């Protein structure tokens, strides 16, 4: 279980006069990663605080609670859902009202991650780039500019930001923000994206070493959500390296952890990658489980890396001999990449499409095979509890993805990012291989310099 100091980020429930026991109940629930329980307790505490007389003291207490609530919402339900954004938005307003620059930066970081996660990649990058202030703010800025830039295909720039975040991280103690951002954004996230960037930049061995470093850090932190993130990082690297045995091993651990802790996003992705490993090993009956995992992860509203996840599905379909279906998935992936501004997988999607054309003997301008769309989940299905996401079989979630005609698949991606038609196709952070042996160039900047 995670060891939580009495809110290292300053979230000291016990010092308030409104109902300290209610606040401490939320703290204890977070400490044992019982995030659904924590959400209920923290919301009760917020209601009690709202009944107090208006003023700076009341606002400061609610700010603590809103940031804590947002952290548990991230873990249990995801960054991209409206309720998570609402908690961070309220925290932004409260921190501005009380003049707390440090927590204002943290709350804005949470919003930036949410924008990026739901497919507004450039909006998230731009907000993160506005970070100003001390080392902590610079660290948050570099880490959260690096993440969206990776999916924008700016691998050298993304790596430069990640490396600066890592250097700042290892020079200080930053554990407290785990509890208000859901995961160890400073270390685990920066290391993860740097590992994927290293792969794209032609350094596969360095990418594997960095992924292992990420998992080692997460184990030392003893934070389950950060460990799930790190395991996903290494799972992706093994997938890129076509190391099926290592891929299956890490995905298995990721699924077991996520089922126990109630992390629907990581559970869905873990199931998808585990099924992909099975298909690549010749177990073609596991193919529907990839879509089942994708659908479960999509219930969190995230689209970060969706084109890469669709590429994973297409690769598995090709391995199983479903060539026409694979071409339809590629068409969908390209449409999602164009709409959300995530071209990082485009080169591999084009390569795979070319391979399929050669295999089928079909001309490039032939009628496209059916693509997939997925309906937006109902409000009830968007917030799985620990028991629901742990017990749901992968096959049950597959029904969220259905075949549609090519014209509908094309038009369905014309709506704005985050719309019901576009927001739940599939989710992942899976990068694909780049053939360029680029060398990263570290951008200038310092602990309190401009993030760009």
Features:
452 residues; mainly alpha; Serine Threonine Protein Phosphatase 5, Tetratricopeptide repeat; 3 domains; two-stranded antiparallel sheet; 21 helices; 1% strand
**Major sheet strand order:** 1-2
What sequence of helices (H) and strands (E) makes up the elements? HHHHHHHHHHHHHHHHHHEHHEH
3D shape:
globular
Arithmetic mean pLDDT: 77
Structural class: mainly alpha
Strand-helix topology:
Blueprint: H1 20-31, H2 35-50, H3 56-76, H4 82-98, H5 101-117, H6 121-129, H7 135-151, H8 155-170, H9 178-181, H10 185-200, H11 204-221, H12 224-240, H13 244-261, H14 264-280, H15 287-298, H16 306-319, H17 323-340, H18 346-360, E1 371-373, H19 386-391, H20 394-397, E2 402-404, H21 406-411
Antiparallel strand pairs: 1-2
Describe the model.
Mean pLDDT is 77; it is low at 1-23 and 367-449. The chain is globular. The protein is mainly alpha-helical and 452 residues long. It has 21 helices and two strands. It has three domains: 17-133, Tetratricopeptide repeat domain (Serine Threonine Protein Phosphatase 5, Tetratricopeptide repeat), CATH 1.25.40.10; 135-241, Serine Threonine Protein Phosphatase 5, Tetratricopeptide repeat, CATH 1.25.40.10; 242-433, no CATH class. The longest helix has 21 residues, at 56-76. The protein has a two-stranded antiparallel ribbon.
